[in-house]
Amino acid sequence: MRRLVLACALLAALAGCRDTPADHLQRARDAVFEKRPDEALVEYRKAVDLLRRDDTPPSLVLRARALKGAADVYWLEQRKVKEAVSVYKELLVQCPESPEALEARIILAELLRVHYHDLRGAIDQLTAALQRNPPQGAELHYQVAKLYFELADYAQCELEATRLAERFATSAYVDDALFLRAQAIQMMEGRRQEASRAYADLRTRFPDSELAAHATVEMGRLRAETGENEKAIELWVEALKAHPDPALVQDYISRARRRIADTTPGSIGERAKAFDHAQAPPPPARPPRTSVEAAGGTAEEASRDHGD
Questions:
Q1: What average pLDDT does range 174-189 have in this prediction?
Q2: Residue 217: left if φ>0, alpha if ψ -120 to 50, beta else—which one?
Q3: Calpha distance 162→150 (Å, rounded)
Q4: Using the 8-state DSSP alphabet, how is residue 154 labeled?
Q5: Could you tell me which residues come within 8 angstroms of residue 95 by beta carbon, excluding any fewer than 6 positions away?
Q6: Which of 80, 207, 236, 244 is the most buried (most CB within 10 A)?
Q7: Is residue 107 within 8 Å of 91, Cβ to Cβ?
Q8: What is the DSSP string of 205-228?
Q9: What is the reported pTM?
């Protein structure tokens, strides 16, 4: 009996030794599907350990899948950001040219931005991803430009937005890039006219874009900043036709009209008169005509006092 037990144990051990990395990967996927993330992580790690010393192309493919799977479990199933970031980075080191590495860079950029506020690190990951010419290149390039805007590096934001519009001329992100470029220029000292031209360029090239109305509003704000309130109102009235927040535009118009009213000569004169009137001293009280009136008596009593 003892020999039989030992034989069974040996057979089980041998069967375990025959488990391939692909077997562990399949078990890990099954565990993820069945909502057993801890078990999935164990299987992914077993697959990675078996593949660690094998650098043949088929083994690298499996290793990249195992590492990506483990990182996804940490992030998507367990929300363990630190562990996910660590395994994504491990994937980038061990299998940098794999398709999984490209996906890892994009996810890693978002984790670095949101959870670590590491905007530079996010830019580095997205820039590396763009070097692989991914199909979502325009979107990734737009994210890079936005990150530079968030960093207040407006000159680099302008450059990246311009590159996007040139490199991905037929992309749906071109109007977004042009609007972001105009915003970046607007934030830089002494470039108000250039910003206005950039917004006008967006309106000309993409008149049906939802951003065209926003560009018109910004052009009006630029005019108002230089005291051109009448022209600003014209632009804002035009923007009302398509702007998603007409109440905001109406507020801009009302404020500009008040500024115009407060700076016209007639208005200034009326306000001066009102001010003078408010400051004028009250007229002096009529002195009492008789001693009776002074004591509080009426005019009739005063007349009787004089024998009237």
A1: 98
A2: alpha
A3: 17
A4: H
A5: 60, 63, 64, 67, 101
A6: 236
A7: no
A8: H-TTSTHHHHHHHHHHHHHHHTT-
A9: 0.78
